Amino acid sequence: MIIFGWENTALLINLYFRRADGEGWLDLGRFFQSPAIVTIPVADGKPEQIYLRGRYLIGNDAVGNYSPSVELVIAP
Predict the structure, then answer these.
(1) Nearest to 18 by CA among 55, 53, 40, 51
(2) Whole-structure pTM value
(3) Which of 1, 47, 67, 70 is in Cβ range 3.0-4.6 Å of 75 for a Cys bridge?
(4) Per CATH, which fold does 2-74 belong to?
(5) Gyration radius (Cα) of the chain, Å
């Protein structure tokens, strides 16, 4: 379980993650309140390095830049 929080709770956020050995960012979905709680399945039942980032939304439109990527290690 990963808890991702943001300061401006009036905005929606879209979260994305990328596996260290993977290509491209995968969409975790839209979140309407902070903190967002997400679960990312661990591949092969071993600890794994991932990157997580977010982007604010107003309605259905992404605004601003992506947040800096956060490096995490997830474990089964």
Answers:
(1) 51
(2) 0.80
(3) 47
(4) Immunoglobulin-like (2.60.40)
(5) 13
Cβ contacts of residue 11 below 8 Å, gap of 6+?
Answer: 56, 57, 58
CA 21 to chain CA centroid, Å, is: 17
- Using alpha carbons, select from 45, 59, 48 the residue that is nearest to residue 14: 59
Domain boundaries, the chain: 2-74
- Please write the tens of the pLDDT for every residue from 34-46: 788 888 888 788 8
Closest CA to 56 of 9, 2, 3, 1: 9
CB 39 within 8 A of CB 1: yes
